[in-house]
Amino acid sequence: MKKVLVLMFLLAMSTFMYAQSNKSLVTPQMAYKLSYHLQKHPPIITKLFCDANNINPYELRSMDGAIAAINQKPQYAENFFVKLFNYYGTGDYGYLVFKEFGFTPQEYDIALKIYNNNPKVKEARERREKAIKDDEDTYTKWQTEGAPNLPSDKVAKNAVVSCTNPDVFDKLIEDNFKPFDLQGNSDVICSLKCKVIISKDKTITIPETEDLSTKTLFEQAGLRVDEVAKYEFENIDKKVDVGQEANMSIVLRGITSDRQANLISLVKYDKKMGHWTINRKEPTYIFDNLVTKKRKIKENEKYSPASVKIAVGISDDIENLLAAELNKMLEPDKNQYWVQYSFFSLNLEILLDGKQVSRLPLKDFKKCGIITYVPKGKINFVD
User: Fold this and answer.
1) Is the pTM of this model over 0.70?
2) 24, 58, 161, 316: which could join 74 in a potential S-S bond, CB 3.0 to 4.6 Å?
3) 5 or 254, greater pLDDT
4) Parallel, antiparallel, or unpaired: how do β-strands 308-312 and 355-374 relate?
């Protein structure tokens, strides 16, 4: 019994002397458990140990030497504790990691105390506390005095703006719409831009310094704020409605689908109707490859079946639009022409600093873009 008491006394004295000589709260038992666990080389834990002590994990001798030296250099353990708590947190997850090392609850408390007393941790905690207080003060101020107008890069969510009177852009579309080669699925017909201030009470103000004609169009377009911008505080769980200062763009875009683009029809002039019509005896085709201005349809040109995608039916709406365009291009005569064209529906898009916030299909505005045609020609399709 006496021998046991002597051994316990010596162990206690060694622990006391270890702490005094190294000026560390890390006990010999904690250092031993840590060293033993790291020698098993669990990859994530070992890497965290190396990162905490500026050791290259690929230099195995240096790493093994540092692990073996934890008894003599408790600073290795202290740095490791800080890294672990920063990585896993001080909650249950962090506690379970230390439990894997074989730490007792009392030893875990020592490790946590080392972490809380670390100068860098204290500094980070103070910065965090100050940031939280600043956010709380700002939130209180904005609640009483009103939130300011913020630029787009400061808001968590842009305002949502829609257009209630798109008819004001009808003349603009007519003036700017031109037949064009459609290589993708959309193309911009025209775009307008000006600075706006969208207040949190859902009013839109355009500075007097903006272009007068653009400003007038924007004002006549019946712009409506459906949702105001939101500001989200970084350090507290609060959101507030704010005003937004932004460059607003209204983009009028031609949209087409596979069944609306790159059509080829045979047309003839109908004297009774007084306009050009599609010859229904010949099918209207959709082509895989667009025939551009550089590569026009040739008279009597032969196309393999692979180039013909599908034969489609043409609605009266499309034929009327096609006829309107052909009347501008061709004089009445007895010839038939193969014409290639695309049929566009229009979308009105509203963007704030380049980010789309609403899109309105303009169903009343539809256009037919003529690409090219073959005078007195006929297209032959090879079987």
Assistant:
1) no
2) 24
3) 254
4) unpaired
